[in-house]
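Appendix B. Extra example for self-study. Work through it before the problem class; the solution is given directly after the inputs so you can check yourself.
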Amino acid sequence: MPTHALKIGLIGAGRIGRLHAEHLTSRIPSADVIMVADPFEEAARSCAERCGIPSYQRDYRAVLEHPEVQALVICSSTDTHAQIIAEAAQVGKHIFCEKPIALELASIDHALAAVKRSGVKLQIGFNRRFDANYRRVRQAVEQGEIGQSLVLHIVSRDPAPPPIEYIRHSGGIFLDMMIHDFDMARYLIGSEIEEVFAQANVISDPAIAAVGDAENAIVTLRFTNDIIGTISNSRHAVYGYDQRVELLGSAGAISTENNYSNTAIISDAHSVRRDLPLHFFLERYTESFIAEMTAFVDAILNDKPVPVNGHDGRMAVIIALAAHRSLVENRPVRLSEIEQ
Amino acid sequence: MPTHALKIGLIGAGRIGRLHAEHLTSRIPSADVIMVADPFEEAARSCAERCGIPSYQRDYRAVLEHPEVQALVICSSTDTHAQIIAEAAQVGKHIFCEKPIALELASIDHALAAVKRSGVKLQIGFNRRFDANYRRVRQAVEQGEIGQSLVLHIVSRDPAPPPIEYIRHSGGIFLDMMIHDFDMARYLIGSEIEEVFAQANVISDPAIAAVGDAENAIVTLRFTNDIIGTISNSRHAVYGYDQRVELLGSAGAISTENNYSNTAIISDAHSVRRDLPLHFFLERYTESFIAEMTAFVDAILNDKPVPVNGHDGRMAVIIALAAHRSLVENRPVRLSEIEQ
Amino acid sequence: MPTHALKIGLIGAGRIGRLHAEHLTSRIPSADVIMVADPFEEAARSCAERCGIPSYQRDYRAVLEHPEVQALVICSSTDTHAQIIAEAAQVGKHIFCEKPIALELASIDHALAAVKRSGVKLQIGFNRRFDANYRRVRQAVEQGEIGQSLVLHIVSRDPAPPPIEYIRHSGGIFLDMMIHDFDMARYLIGSEIEEVFAQANVISDPAIAAVGDAENAIVTLRFTNDIIGTISNSRHAVYGYDQRVELLGSAGAISTENNYSNTAIISDAHSVRRDLPLHFFLERYTESFIAEMTAFVDAILNDKPVPVNGHDGRMAVIIALAAHRSLVENRPVRLSEIEQ
Amino acid sequence: MPTHALKIGLIGAGRIGRLHAEHLTSRIPSADVIMVADPFEEAARSCAERCGIPSYQRDYRAVLEHPEVQALVICSSTDTHAQIIAEAAQVGKHIFCEKPIALELASIDHALAAVKRSGVKLQIGFNRRFDANYRRVRQAVEQGEIGQSLVLHIVSRDPAPPPIEYIRHSGGIFLDMMIHDFDMARYLIGSEIEEVFAQANVISDPAIAAVGDAENAIVTLRFTNDIIGTISNSRHAVYGYDQRVELLGSAGAISTENNYSNTAIISDAHSVRRDLPLHFFLERYTESFIAEMTAFVDAILNDKPVPVNGHDGRMAVIIALAAHRSLVENRPVRLSEIEQ
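Solution. Structure tokens for the complete assembly:
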């Protein structure tokens, strides 16, 4: 471990927490995870053991109070994010927090105010910005390869719905799933969204309707600079994780395809076929998770701006809330309605 | 020419009229074009000469009154379609009419009533239904290859805008261009659309805004059976004619790609590239134009139902009118609002 | 029919003869087939009826002697080609002849000498030169898009072997099947082949071995200018007609893919797949058959050089004979060994 | 580091040695590199420092004699491989050795005899066997997805020739470059090669001819079970590392494509294009290098057979020597001629 490695405390040892723990300890030499906390003591313990983290605790405050911890990685449940951010900012720890910051705007604003007062860095976990495909699209926009942006389309589908109990408490498809795509839209276009219109349905999985959520959803976007676009989500793509964007510009278009575990094509008497795309986010976005964490560690060690900040985290939630209201009221909703 | 060939009179010898004339005379042995009419006598004359049509006239009524003409192919300007359909029905001629039937619902209903009274066959020129790619999608839906349909996306872009004078009188992007996609949506899904929401912009070509039309437009669709979807149009795809659909179903998805003049891939020191897709509708949809006309001739000679009827032509216009109203009023519009 | 149309006599009304008859009568306005001959009178009659050819005969000499016939299209059995070419040249008819001219060099040279003496035009039926994919490769070579040519690979596979009786009398895989690829190699590279080495096997279809032919064959090529390459044939590609080339050059590479009846991709729980490629040569090379015949008619009507001449036909046979000798003797064989 | 980690000594800290050092120390937790040796002391020192290896030496014998070292990873120059293997076997160390074992058969046999006597494990560095694309092809063969194998084609091209001094001492294109493909052919087919025929040229880079080597080479293969195939190598593919195979079987075919850093497609007014494939072996085969070393460590720790053994290393050299003789003598050469 380099002597100048960033000393990190991890809060939350669930699926995503363990993922970050593994990357931070085995793939990012400039990071040093020195403590992990989880209310499930067994989760904290096994994560510590597996990743060689020297200390674990049940209470996240132990991490906050640890004098050597320089930065937190917050992977606890969503309802705790804003509170932990605020407390961490007060004790001067830098913060990486998984999305979303919170499901209500007031909590987000409270947390961001604390961050602003303290001057610590806060990065939000929109990992897809670090994916090579989307980076290439953003690069094309920045370098003018396709001229002025005109129309954006994002498709983002999960291979199967999560457990119905998860959906029930997830905040709904816009806050739980499409929030990544709202951030992606802002990232790719580089300007703000002004108004959204949402449509949704439940056809093949009635249990999702029973808990008040959508199986499939489409949101139409209007950006402040008149660019328009759509985001199409589904919880039900039996062929796997479907993650694509396409952007039409005045001088051309750029689109991305799914990623696959191999390039082999089999032609037999029935069809010309290949294996399914990488199954889900753990397989598809591994490198982007490592890259986002590397960028966070680098931003702190070298005092750079974080690549995804609190404003980004806040805007994605605002768009999701606007989309939800649009769906309920069946009308286009301006983001300004939510912000007031 | 087989003795039982269908005797056809062509009305309108503009671009699309000449196209049909060529196909009918050289590619469809069971058709016999015996007269062509166009108010521009020179257009009628040169079309007749080029295609070996024995007679030409300025006045379309000469075609209507020709005793041997069994069927009309109407390719005159849109504002004449409904009137000619009505007159043709009264004299018992079968009718193929280019889309749209008319830009106002009252005219359409008047024409369709005449058709109904007379019992002649009326086919509307939604040629894309006969394209092999879309046929394959429809086949997948019908044969259950992708289960229940959930979400539909259609992309349809022209390589460049038509002349601004054309746009000024075109009826707008929904009636002029997206009307094909409205029909495609109904065809692929096999059910009716209930409500639409439209967005549009003009960014790279301000002249289009000056005549009150859109450069790019997106319409969100809700079908009566809860399927949702989008149609994305652009008049400005510099890389050529971009014509694709994708349909997500409960057991899989199906998508189509553009067609190309060759399959060659060149890899050099800069990129891996291929030539642009087929440039525009004449190249892209040649076979579908032949197939639609073959189907029309077959429907009459063998007394079968036409594959695209007056109801289809009427619905596409209603959807376009609803989309237009949605754009003007910035709200979702139900088709029932237009039909009353 | 234009009054200046080329008057053609067709000799041979088998599969390929009927194909050309159909194209000449329905797709090539500048051609006028006025007589067809086939020893099977019924074949000649039904071809004439189907394509509207005014006269048919059993004896090909009736075509040769017809005073109005300007050009012959020879689609009779291979063993008659050289003789008919010689006779036709003597009576001053231009000639299109299906490949191969003959299976022995002496016959070819006799026929070509007669052609040379008479000054008539002779085109050989290597239709693949007129295919859009290969044209694009040739264009890349001519325009220097990939620099100097270095290495060529051709893959050419049939969906299934022909009947074993056909194989028995076909002259073997090199003269019957790979001959197209030998011509393609010369066409794409634009220089002569100097030496070949052949390998072959029979694995899945022992009946082919029983008649002394190969199921799969590979020939290595060396051109006079040091370019090297391979041709890979198989009679047994269960997925359909597999027709591809790739050419490496000093500034890049170009490769072609198979052609398909539609572009639809289906993703389901098992694979991402598309329908099989166009099944066989009738589907795959339709446009190239029309283009070759159009070029033949054009060459005569406008007194241009034919695009595939007797030398081309002769060289393809020489290469095939060299490949056959290489296989029998298991050593590289120079073309000069065959020509002596 | 797990307490049971395999203690490894690394011999050779050049490009490939440093690559393995990095993977062994950061990506393979069950390995523990405890010493590195290189005659260039500075190379050994910087490798040790960079990867946290506790000890470094100039003399490889220090590694051989280190009592705790259980296994060697030999990445020294080719001419030292056989000697070090023999010495290592004598002192009972397990061995991973980069390809080729040696350029002469006698040296290889001497080394393999020592290995056999001692009973240590020896794995040869044919990393491509661990690549996901080729694994998928092998899996298709093993599971019968394409029936019986009939014809194999391998294309393997480098983005640019190595320095001419490297080529001069490399042993030639067959031993230096195509050796990977000879192993791949044996791996994919699962049987031995019986006879080869080689062709080669130098066209765009005369300096390669000046040192007696080839710029492009093609080898035709005949396997003992009659399967035939080709390998096509080029040192001059300006578009990058081109690594593909295709295998025709009696029930279908399987082929692989190159790998890319992203999936983005850009369509502009000139072409539809993507970025170049992964540039060279370090980018293209990263995961396969990690997988081969993981397999080696696993084979020793868990006493399994190594996946690529001394026989595999020996056969690849024999095939390369046969190909070389074939090229020199312009005739097919049986492997049995080399083995005697």
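Self-check: The first strand of chain D starts at residue 6 and ends at 11. If your reasoning did not lead you there, revisit section 3.
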